[in-house]
């Protein structure tokens, strides 16, 4: 990655995301949804790195269409960098972390997300705040390995998406 900003920047008004819905759900995790998929309750995940790229998320979820993402933020986490990827840290309420939220609709989708993130990250509950000020309980991925592996540099989603766009030879990115 050629340039990494010192922090994730809040999307500007020029930012364009797929249309968002106004659905608000509560997070209810059934302990045995792997054995009983019908018990799964859709809930929001907050993405602050590569999964915030609609192209990456489409591939990870094995969808035919691009998933609807909502601009969002969370608090109560710090951020460092692992290679070129951002990593949230527990209990470091430094600044808001800006990203996007996606409503996971099945246990299969949630499993694909966890597989993509590997054991280096773990799921953790969070409160997701949308641009309109509404908040929902959600889940995000936080660093799950030795913090000594992380660098202090920040991560800028716009820069990362531009780098990905260039590497894929695509036109404008919808951020």
Mean pLDDT: 77
CATH topology of the domain at 43-84 and 92-145: Hypothetical upf0131 protein ytfp
Largest sheet: 5 strands, mixed, barrel
Order of helices and strands: EHEEEEHEEH
Structural class label: alpha+beta
Q: Which CATH first-tier class of the domain at 43-84 and 92-145 would you pick?
A: Alpha Beta
| Count of DSSP H/I helices | 3
Give me the count of strands.
7
What is the CATH architecture descriptor of the domain at 43-84 and 92-145? Roll
In whole angstroms, how far apart are the ends?
18 Å
Describe this structure in words.
The two termini are 18 Å apart. The chain has a 5-stranded mixed beta barrel with strand order 1-5-2-6-7. The protein has 175 residues and is α+β, with helices and mostly antiparallel strands. It contains 3 helices and 7 strands. The longest helix has 12 residues. The chain has a domain of 96 residues: Hypothetical upf0131 protein ytfp.
How are the elements arranged and paired?
Layout: E1 43-47, H1 54-61, E2 70-74, E3 77-82, E4 85-90, E5 97-104, H2 107-117, E6 121-130, E7 135-143, H3 157-168
Parallel strand pairs: 1-7
Antiparallel strand pairs: 1-5, 2-5, 2-6, 3-4, 6-7
Domain Gamma-glutamylcyclotransferase AIG2-like: 45-160
Organism: Aspergillus brasiliensis (strain CBS 101740 / IMI 381727 / IBT 21946)
Biased composition (Polar residues): 1-14
């Amino acid at each position: 990655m050629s340039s990494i900003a010192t922090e994730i920047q809040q999307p500007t008004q020029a930012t364009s995301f797929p249309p968002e819905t106004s659905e608000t759900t509560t997070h209810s995790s059934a302990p045995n949804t792997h054995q009983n998929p019908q018990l799964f309750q859709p809930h929001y995940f907050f993405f602050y790195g590569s999964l915030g790229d609609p192209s990456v998320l489409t591939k990870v979820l094995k969808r035919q269409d691009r998933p609807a993402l909502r601009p969002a933020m969370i608090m109560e986490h710090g951020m460092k960098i692992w290679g070129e990827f951002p990593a949230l840290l527990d209990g470091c309420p430094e600044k808001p972390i800006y990203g996007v939220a996606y409503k996971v609709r099945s246990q299969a989708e949630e499993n694909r997300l966890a597989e993509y993130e590997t054991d280096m990250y773990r799921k953790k509950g969070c409160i997701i705040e949308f641009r309109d000020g509404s908040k929902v309980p959600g889940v995000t991925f936080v660093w799950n390995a030795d913090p000594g592996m992380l660098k202090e540099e920040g991560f800028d989603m716009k820069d990362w998406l531009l780098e990905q766009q260039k590497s894929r030879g695509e036109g404008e990115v919808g951020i």
